[in-house]
Design a protein that fits this description.
Radius of gyration: 21 Å
Strand content: under 5%
Order of helices and strands: HHHHHHHHHHHHHHHHHHHH
Number of strands: 0
Largest sheet: none
Number of helices: 20
Helix content: 55-70%
Shape: globular
Number of domains: 1
Distance between the termini: 43 Å
Structural class: mainly alpha
């Protein structure tokens, strides 16, 4: 066994063991919420599951996967923890393959990820796995496959509902040689004579492809629950907790009284999409995950795991600060491990008022991370290797 293989094995063993260990310490109401789908299915079959899920903020695939996990010989709590551990390992594998072992370790050994996947057992990382794979596929000039993977992400959960818009805004094509030293690391820039606007014919067709396919798959899946798509209205109006940490931290509460919160969130996300439209799709995915949490108008504990893969890709001091604050919060919160000494000392109380100052601090860390973020070179660049271009990639520019 080589040294590199030994390091990979050590990270894998530690990450898996930590997740499975914290899964034995208890569970939160999130597990009860997930298990309710299983109980509905066993009580009334598929029809009962579909009928009751209309009133939940969910999408088609997840409930049936939970039902399948409930048929395994171990308990549902254990099977779900093992399933989410495998999903996290897959995300770490993509990070190792595309960025490097350090990024994979920073994600897989992150205490926030360990607690949320192992203890809270929240399944957002399944959607993120599909989204990350879609970004990698997009960067390899395979937009159709990327669009299908984005559709799969939305069919699990709508965390990445605006990522197709971000990718549709990107110029096309952008070959690896079209770089400019004036742009930040990880972003692609092309000389003006080679730059292709997204309004041009070829680029527009790619944008339409990326935009239409994911949403078509998503709506088709939602129609299985209710042909009238009432579930979409429920998703738009759903608020886990209307705390809007970053928005209130900057004193825009008066504006929020006159402008719907959803509009503010959408406006911020679209502006960020325009700002990062010339980045690689992987970097856009990483930044999107950070923006999603930073500008959230309804932040809850389990959303804290969403930016972790993106932070690992562009790790800096503010990513470390986010991890430290989030770890302390998850150790003390009653939605986390709620260690008694920390919980009483820090006065943290779930997603209520006691948690809001912590959310604000973490959102501020994310904002500072984005301002100071520099994406690292890819694994191929670190090893001075030149990856072979895919068969459908454009030739290098002259």
């Amino acid at each position: 066994m080589t040294r590199s293989q030994g390091q990979i094995l050590a990270v894998l063993v530690l990450g898996v063991a930590a997740r499975l260990y914290v899964s034995t310490l208890g569970y939160t109401q999130d597990l009860n919420y997930t298990q309710s789908w299983v109980l509905q299915y066993h009580a009334g079959g598929r029809a009962a599951l579909l009928a009751n899920t209309i009133q939940m903020s969910t999408v088609p695939i997840a409930p049936f996967v939970f039902v399948a996990l409930s048929h395994l010989p171990c308990s549902f709590r254990t099977s779900l923890a093992v399933f989410l551990t495998l999903i996290d390992a897959a995300v770490a594998g993509l990070l190792w393959w595309s960025v490097g072992g350090v990024a994979a370790a920073l994600f897989f050994l992150n205490p926030i990820s360990i607690i949320i996947s192992g203890y809270q057992r929240v399944t957002d990382n399944v959607a993120l796995l599909f989204g990350f794979a879609a970004a990698l596929t997009w960067d390899r000039r395979r937009p159709f496959s990327a669009a299908l993977l984005l559709g799969g992400s939305l069919l699990w959960k709508h965390d990445l509902v605006l990522l197709p818009v971000w990718l549709a805004l990107k110029p096309w094509p952008a070959s690896p040689c079209q770089r400019d030293q004036g742009e930040s690391a990880g972003c692609l820039a092309t000389p003006s004579r080679h730059r292709v606007s997204w309004l041009s014919g070829a680029s527009l067709s790619q944008a339409i492809l990326c935009f239409v396919i994911p949403y078509a798959l998503w709506l088709a899946g939602l129609a299985l629950y209710d042909p009238t798509l009432r579930i979409v209205t429920h998703m738009v109006n759903y608020r886990s907790t209307a705390n809007a940490p970053l928005w209130f931290a900057f004193g825009v509460s008066n504006l929020m009284g006159r402008v719907p919160w959803l509009w503010l969130f959408l406006g911020a996300m679209l502006l960020c999409g325009l700002r990062y439209r010339r980045c690689t799709a992987v970097e856009a995915f990483a930044v999107y995950c950070c923006c999603l949490v930073a500008f959230s108008t309804a932040l809850a504990n389990h959303y804290l795991a969403i930016p972790l893969a993106g932070l690992a890709i562009g790790w800096n001091r503010w990513a470390a600060a986010y991890t430290f604050v989030g770890t302390v919060f998850e150790l003390s919160s009653d939605q986390g491990l709620h260690i008694g000494l920390l919980e009483g000392w820090l006065h943290v109380s779930g997603d209520g008022t006691g948690a809001v100052p912590w959310y604000r601090l973490m959102c501020l860390c994310l904002l500072l991370h984005l301002v100071t973020r520099n994406a690292p070179p890819t694994k191929h660049e670190n090893s001075n290797e030149t990856p072979s271009p895919p068969t459908n990639a454009l030739p290098p520019c002259a």
